[in-house]
Automatic annotation (TrEMBL):
The lineage of its organism: Bacteria, Bacillati, Actinomycetota, Actinomycetes, Pseudonocardiales. Gene3D superfamilies: AhpD-like. Transmembrane segments: none annotated. It comes from Amycolatopsis nalaikhensis. Residues 42-126 form the Carboxymuconolactone decarboxylase-like domain. This is Carboxymuconolactone decarboxylase family protein. Coiled coil: none annotated. Pfam families: CMD. InterPro entries: AhpD-like, CMD-like.
Length: 186
C-alpha cells in the first residue's frame, strides 16, 4: 500500500477563480476538491461535465438507485474513500439506500439480506467486473434481466468510469470532503 501524503498531489484551485475555471466549475457542480482539480484544465473539465450530464440525467437507461449502486460499489471496491463519501452524502437518500445497504455497499456482499434480486444482480455484475474486467454469461443474463440491455451497457460504462475516478482521487490523495461518509467508519 502506498504511503498517503497529507496534502493532495495536485492542489485544487482556490477562489477567486478565473473566468475559464469558473465556467468549468459551473458545469461540473458544487466546487468540491475533485472538480477544482479538473478546473485547472478547463477543456478537461468541460469534457468530463459532458459525460456526467448524460449519466446524471433522465436519458441514462439506469435509475438513480441503479446508478448509485454501481458508483458506490465500484468506489468502495477501489477503496476510493473520497468519491464514495461524496456519493453517499449526496445521493444515498435520493437512491433510497438505507443504513444496512450503505454498510453492505462499503464492505458486504451482493448476497446480503438487504438486497432484492434485481439489486443483487446489479451488484454481482459490478463485483465481477471489478475482479475480472469481464462478465460471465450467467452474470450477464442476470444483469440484463435486472436492467435491460441498454442498462447493462450503462453499467459497464459507469463502472469503468468510476474506476477511473477512483484511481484519480486515490492517486491525487484527496482528503474526504467535510461531513462526507467514510468507507471505514462503522
Amino acid at each position: 500500500m502506498p504511503l498517503k501524503s497529507k496534502q493532495p498531489r495536485i492542489a485544487p484551485l482556490e477562489p477567486p477563480f478565473d473566468v475559464e475555471a469558473a465556467a468549468a466549475l459551473d458545469q461540473l457542480g458544487p466546487p468540491i476538491q475533485l472538480f477544482r482539480v479538473w478546473a485547472r484544465r478547463p477543456d478537461l473539465a468541460h469534457g468530463v461535465a459532458s459525460w456526467g450530464r448524460y449519466y446524471f440525467s433522465r436519458r441514462s437507461a439506469l435509475s438513480v438507485r441503479q446508478r448509485e449502486l454501481v458508483i458506490d460499489r465500484t468506489t468502495a471496491l477501489c477503496g476510493a474513500d473520497y468519491e464514495w463519501g461524496v456519493h453517499v452524502a449526496t445521493f444515498a437518500e435520493k437512491a433510497g439506500l438505507d443504513a444496512a445497504q450503505i454498510r453492505s455497499l462499503a464492505g458486504g456482499n451482493p448476497t446480503d439480506a438487504c438486497w432484492d434480486p434485481a439489486d443483487r444482480a446489479l451488484l454481482a455484475a459490478v463485483d465481477e467486473l471489478h475482479a475480472t474486467c469481464d462478465l460471465g454469461d450467467a452474470t450477464w443474463a442476470d444483469l440484463v434481466a435486472a436492467v435491460g440491455e441498454d442498462g447493462a451497457l450503462d453499467v459497464l460504462l459507469v463502472s469503468g468510469w468510476y474506476h477511473a475516478i477512483s484511481f484519480t482521487v486515490r492517486a491525487l490523495r484527496l482528503p474526504p470532503e467535510p461531513g462526507a461518509a467514510r468507507l471505514n467508519s462503522p
